[in-house]
Amino acid sequence: MSANQKPQDVNKSEEEWRAELTDEQFRVTRKHGTEAPFSHSHASEKRDGTYHCICCGEPLFSSETKYDSGTGWPSYWAPVTPEAVREHDDNSLLMRRTEVQCANCDAHLGHVFPDGPEPTGLRYCINGEALDLKSGDGAKDAQENAGRSPEAA
């Protein structure tokens, strides 16, 4: 597989996505929605593991980089690898933000802000509806990719 090739075919129609996702998962990931703060259990989740894209299953974030930002959304200071996500300018809602998408299937995940903890100084503020936690599947590998972890969530 070449560096530009995606690991799986994710060219799905809106109807296919609707059939595979809950209404809220579809609204958040395919229509660029945002869940209410503190509404998803992933915001307070403490188990070790890797958070995968709800749409395509690709690993995105690790519990090793998760922390409690106090915002009500799951927050991470780095993705599992820089290639796991894509970032785009988002000027909607009269704000200037940086949108975060799954690099594999283009699912809307949330936004990244420059107010996070060391070592990156970033806060990936991610919708819990966009994530699927798989407990204990190599979460410690992300620490090697992203640097030293601040106090875990």
Could you explain how this protein is built, in words?
The protein is α+β, with helices and mostly antiparallel strands. The protein has a domain at 36-137: Peptide methionine sulfoxide reductase (Metal Binding Protein, Guanine Nucleotide Exchange Factor, Chain A, Beta Complex), CATH 2.170.150. The chain is built from 3 helices and 9 strands, in the order ααβββββββββα. It has helices at 14-20, 23-30, 140-146, and strands at 49-53, 59-62, 66-67, 75-76, 85-90, 97-102, 108-113, 123-126, 131-135. The strands form 2 sheets. A 6-stranded antiparallel beta sheet has the order 3-4-8-7-6-5. A 3-stranded antiparallel beta sheet has the order 2-1-9, covered by helices on one side. The termini are far apart. Residues 1-6 and 138-153 have low confidence and may be disordered.
What is the compact description of this entry?
The chain has 3 helices and 9 strands; from the N terminus they run H-H-E-E-E-E-E-E-E-E-E-H. It is of the alpha+beta class and 153 residues long.
Keywords:
6-stranded antiparallel β-sheet; 3-stranded antiparallel β-sheet; disordered N terminus; alpha+beta; single chain; 153 residues; Metal Binding Protein, Guanine Nucleotide Exchange Factor, Chain A
